[in-house]
Amino acid sequence: MKINRRTMLASLSACASGLLAQEPAKIDPTLYTPKAHRVEDLKLLHDFMDEYAFVDLVTSTPTLRITHIPVILDRTTGTYGKIMGHVSRQNPQSQAFDGRQTGVIVFRGPHGYISPTWYAKKEAVPTWNFAVVHAAGRPAAITDKEALHKLLGRLIEKFENTEGSGYDFSKLPESYVSPMLGGIVGFEMTVESLEGKFKLGQERSDVDKQGLLEHLGQSKRRERSLQDLTASFYKRPQSG
Fold first, then answer.
1. Is the pTM of this model over 0.85?
2. DSSP secondary structure string, 33-79?
3. Residue 199: inside a domain, yes or no?
4. Number of domains comprising the chain
5. Mean pLDDT for each consecutive 10-residue tract of the chain (240 residues)?
6. Residue 131 lies in domain
Protein backbone atom coordinates (compact mmCIF):
# COMPACT_ATOMS: atom_id res chain seq x y z
CA MET A 1 0.00 0.00 0.00
CA LYS A 2 1.38 3.36 -1.03
CA ILE A 3 1.59 5.90 1.83
CA ASN A 4 0.86 9.52 1.05
CA ARG A 5 3.64 11.35 2.91
CA ARG A 6 1.83 14.68 2.90
CA THR A 7 -1.33 13.15 4.34
CA MET A 8 0.65 11.34 7.03
CA LEU A 9 2.46 14.53 8.10
CA ALA A 10 -0.80 16.45 8.21
CA SER A 11 -2.34 13.73 10.38
CA LEU A 12 0.61 13.73 12.79
CA SER A 13 0.48 17.52 13.00
CA ALA A 14 -3.24 17.43 13.82
CA CYS A 15 -2.65 14.84 16.55
CA ALA A 16 0.15 16.92 18.07
CA SER A 17 -2.04 20.01 18.01
CA GLY A 18 -4.80 18.08 19.75
CA LEU A 19 -2.44 16.92 22.50
CA LEU A 20 -1.14 20.45 23.04
CA ALA A 21 -4.68 21.78 23.24
CA GLN A 22 -5.47 19.31 26.02
CA GLU A 23 -2.49 20.36 28.15
CA PRO A 24 -3.17 23.32 30.46
CA ALA A 25 -1.21 26.41 29.58
CA LYS A 26 1.65 27.36 31.85
CA ILE A 27 0.68 30.14 34.24
CA ASP A 28 2.68 33.32 33.74
CA PRO A 29 4.06 35.26 36.74
CA THR A 30 1.46 37.51 38.32
CA LEU A 31 3.85 39.72 40.28
CA TYR A 32 6.83 41.93 39.45
CA THR A 33 9.59 40.76 41.80
CA PRO A 34 13.17 42.02 41.67
CA LYS A 35 15.73 39.31 42.42
CA ALA A 36 16.62 40.89 45.78
CA HIS A 37 13.02 40.54 46.98
CA ARG A 38 12.28 37.07 45.59
CA VAL A 39 11.70 34.35 48.19
CA GLU A 40 11.61 30.71 47.10
CA ASP A 41 11.99 28.90 50.44
CA LEU A 42 8.89 26.68 50.30
CA LYS A 43 8.60 26.18 54.05
CA LEU A 44 8.87 29.91 54.70
CA LEU A 45 6.19 30.61 52.07
CA HIS A 46 3.88 27.91 53.47
CA ASP A 47 4.32 29.20 57.02
CA PHE A 48 3.48 32.70 55.78
CA MET A 49 0.37 31.41 53.99
CA ASP A 50 -0.79 29.65 57.14
CA GLU A 51 -0.23 32.75 59.26
CA TYR A 52 -1.89 35.24 56.88
CA ALA A 53 -4.73 33.03 55.73
CA PHE A 54 -7.31 35.76 55.03
CA VAL A 55 -6.79 36.21 51.30
CA ASP A 56 -7.85 37.90 48.09
CA LEU A 57 -9.20 35.34 45.62
CA VAL A 58 -8.90 36.78 42.10
CA THR A 59 -10.46 35.34 38.94
CA SER A 60 -11.09 36.96 35.56
CA THR A 61 -13.62 34.67 33.84
CA PRO A 62 -16.45 35.26 33.02
CA THR A 63 -15.74 38.69 34.58
CA LEU A 64 -13.09 40.11 36.90
CA ARG A 65 -13.95 39.15 40.48
CA ILE A 66 -12.15 39.47 43.83
CA THR A 67 -13.47 37.82 46.98
CA HIS A 68 -11.94 38.18 50.46
CA ILE A 69 -12.06 34.90 52.39
CA PRO A 70 -10.14 32.72 54.84
CA VAL A 71 -8.55 29.59 53.39
CA ILE A 72 -6.66 26.51 54.52
CA LEU A 73 -3.49 25.09 53.02
CA ASP A 74 -2.71 21.44 52.40
CA ARG A 75 1.08 21.34 52.08
CA THR A 76 1.24 17.71 50.92
CA THR A 77 -0.43 18.00 47.50
CA GLY A 78 1.64 18.58 44.36
CA THR A 79 4.78 20.68 44.21
CA TYR A 80 3.48 23.73 46.08
CA GLY A 81 0.43 22.46 47.95
CA LYS A 82 -3.33 22.87 47.63
CA ILE A 83 -5.57 25.71 48.86
CA MET A 84 -9.21 25.23 49.87
CA GLY A 85 -12.00 27.62 50.76
CA HIS A 86 -15.56 28.56 49.91
CA VAL A 87 -17.68 31.45 48.67
CA SER A 88 -21.38 32.21 48.84
CA ARG A 89 -23.50 30.35 46.31
CA GLN A 90 -24.86 33.77 45.35
CA ASN A 91 -21.36 34.94 44.41
CA PRO A 92 -20.94 34.89 40.60
CA GLN A 93 -17.26 34.07 41.11
CA SER A 94 -18.22 30.45 41.75
CA GLN A 95 -18.75 30.13 37.97
CA ALA A 96 -14.96 30.23 37.61
CA PHE A 97 -14.52 27.05 39.66
CA ASP A 98 -14.44 24.73 36.64
CA GLY A 99 -10.87 23.45 37.00
CA ARG A 100 -9.81 25.21 33.79
CA GLN A 101 -9.92 28.93 34.53
CA THR A 102 -6.85 30.45 36.17
CA GLY A 103 -7.18 32.04 39.60
CA VAL A 104 -4.73 33.85 41.86
CA ILE A 105 -4.87 33.85 45.66
CA VAL A 106 -3.00 36.70 47.34
CA PHE A 107 -1.70 36.30 50.90
CA ARG A 108 -0.81 39.67 52.44
CA GLY A 109 1.46 40.24 55.40
CA PRO A 110 2.40 43.40 57.36
CA HIS A 111 3.41 46.55 55.51
CA GLY A 112 4.63 50.03 56.34
CA TYR A 113 6.13 53.31 55.18
CA ILE A 114 9.92 53.60 55.22
CA SER A 115 11.46 57.07 55.67
CA PRO A 116 14.85 57.91 54.08
CA THR A 117 15.87 59.45 57.42
CA TRP A 118 16.18 55.94 58.83
CA TYR A 119 19.18 55.13 56.62
CA ALA A 120 22.83 55.90 57.29
CA LYS A 121 22.90 58.00 54.11
CA LYS A 122 19.88 60.27 53.80
CA GLU A 123 20.19 60.73 50.00
CA ALA A 124 17.39 58.30 49.26
CA VAL A 125 13.69 58.26 48.49
CA PRO A 126 10.84 56.96 50.67
CA THR A 127 9.49 53.49 50.01
CA TRP A 128 6.96 51.02 51.35
CA ASN A 129 8.02 47.65 52.72
CA PHE A 130 5.74 44.62 52.66
CA ALA A 131 5.51 40.86 52.18
CA VAL A 132 3.10 38.98 49.92
CA VAL A 133 2.68 35.52 48.42
CA HIS A 134 0.79 34.90 45.17
CA ALA A 135 -0.50 31.37 44.58
CA ALA A 136 -1.91 30.60 41.13
CA GLY A 137 -3.80 27.59 39.83
CA ARG A 138 -7.15 26.47 38.49
CA PRO A 139 -9.89 26.43 41.17
CA ALA A 140 -12.29 23.49 40.96
CA ALA A 141 -15.63 23.25 42.75
CA ILE A 142 -16.07 20.74 45.56
CA THR A 143 -19.35 19.07 44.65
CA ASP A 144 -19.39 16.21 47.16
CA LYS A 145 -21.43 17.23 50.21
CA GLU A 146 -19.34 15.15 52.63
CA ALA A 147 -16.12 16.69 51.32
CA LEU A 148 -17.62 20.18 51.65
CA HIS A 149 -18.68 19.43 55.23
CA LYS A 150 -15.15 18.26 56.01
CA LEU A 151 -13.65 21.40 54.47
CA LEU A 152 -15.90 23.66 56.53
CA GLY A 153 -14.99 21.75 59.68
CA ARG A 154 -11.25 22.07 59.01
CA LEU A 155 -11.56 25.76 58.21
CA ILE A 156 -13.46 26.49 61.42
CA GLU A 157 -11.14 24.34 63.51
CA LYS A 158 -8.05 26.19 62.23
CA PHE A 159 -9.25 29.56 63.54
CA GLU A 160 -11.18 28.34 66.57
CA ASN A 161 -8.02 26.64 67.85
CA THR A 162 -6.34 30.05 67.75
CA GLU A 163 -9.15 31.63 69.76
CA GLY A 164 -9.45 28.71 72.19
CA SER A 165 -13.20 29.27 72.49
CA GLY A 166 -14.26 25.65 72.82
CA TYR A 167 -16.68 25.92 69.88
CA ASP A 168 -17.23 22.52 68.23
CA PHE A 169 -18.67 22.58 64.73
CA SER A 170 -19.11 18.80 64.71
CA LYS A 171 -21.76 19.05 67.44
CA LEU A 172 -24.13 21.19 65.39
CA PRO A 173 -27.28 19.29 64.31
CA GLU A 174 -27.53 18.12 60.71
CA SER A 175 -30.82 20.00 60.38
CA TYR A 176 -28.83 23.24 60.80
CA VAL A 177 -25.66 22.32 58.92
CA SER A 178 -27.25 20.87 55.79
CA PRO A 179 -29.07 24.06 54.68
CA MET A 180 -25.94 26.08 55.48
CA LEU A 181 -23.86 23.87 53.19
CA GLY A 182 -26.42 24.46 50.46
CA GLY A 183 -25.65 28.16 50.61
CA ILE A 184 -21.94 27.90 49.82
CA VAL A 185 -19.69 26.63 47.04
CA GLY A 186 -16.42 25.07 48.12
CA PHE A 187 -13.31 25.00 45.95
CA GLU A 188 -9.87 23.48 45.91
CA MET A 189 -6.92 24.75 43.93
CA THR A 190 -3.69 22.85 43.42
CA VAL A 191 -0.99 25.53 43.35
CA GLU A 192 0.82 25.54 40.00
CA SER A 193 2.80 28.73 40.55
CA LEU A 194 3.99 30.18 43.85
CA GLU A 195 5.57 33.65 44.04
CA GLY A 196 6.98 35.17 47.21
CA LYS A 197 7.88 38.85 47.35
CA PHE A 198 9.38 40.07 50.63
CA LYS A 199 10.41 43.70 50.21
CA LEU A 200 11.92 44.25 53.65
CA GLY A 201 15.14 46.11 52.91
CA GLN A 202 17.16 42.91 52.98
CA GLU A 203 19.43 44.21 50.19
CA ARG A 204 20.60 47.20 52.27
CA SER A 205 23.65 47.48 54.53
CA ASP A 206 23.66 46.12 58.09
CA VAL A 207 23.58 49.69 59.42
CA ASP A 208 20.50 50.49 57.35
CA LYS A 209 18.79 47.26 58.44
CA GLN A 210 19.36 48.16 62.09
CA GLY A 211 17.96 51.64 61.45
CA LEU A 212 14.87 50.13 59.83
CA LEU A 213 14.23 47.84 62.79
CA GLU A 214 14.69 50.61 65.35
CA HIS A 215 12.44 53.13 63.61
CA LEU A 216 9.76 50.61 62.67
CA GLY A 217 9.39 49.88 66.37
CA GLN A 218 9.06 53.61 67.14
CA SER A 219 6.85 54.57 64.18
CA LYS A 220 3.97 56.87 65.09
CA ARG A 221 1.86 55.48 62.30
CA ARG A 222 -0.31 52.66 63.55
CA GLU A 223 -3.15 51.01 61.71
CA ARG A 224 -6.32 50.68 63.71
CA SER A 225 -7.10 47.27 65.09
CA LEU A 226 -10.23 45.44 63.98
CA GLN A 227 -11.70 46.24 67.40
CA ASP A 228 -11.06 49.99 66.99
CA LEU A 229 -12.43 50.04 63.44
CA THR A 230 -15.53 48.09 64.45
CA ALA A 231 -16.22 50.32 67.46
CA SER A 232 -15.92 53.52 65.42
CA PHE A 233 -18.12 52.09 62.68
CA TYR A 234 -20.84 51.21 65.20
CA LYS A 235 -20.86 54.83 66.36
CA ARG A 236 -21.73 56.17 62.91
CA PRO A 237 -25.25 57.54 62.49
CA GLN A 238 -27.58 54.81 61.34
CA SER A 239 -29.22 55.49 57.99
CA GLY A 240 -32.90 54.94 57.36
1. yes
2. --GGGEE--HHHHHHHHHHT-EEEEEE-SSS-EEEEEE-EEETTSTT
3. yes
4. 1
5. 57 52 79 97 98 98 95 97 98 97 97 94 93 98 96 95 90 94 97 98 96 91 90 88
6. 32-143+184-218
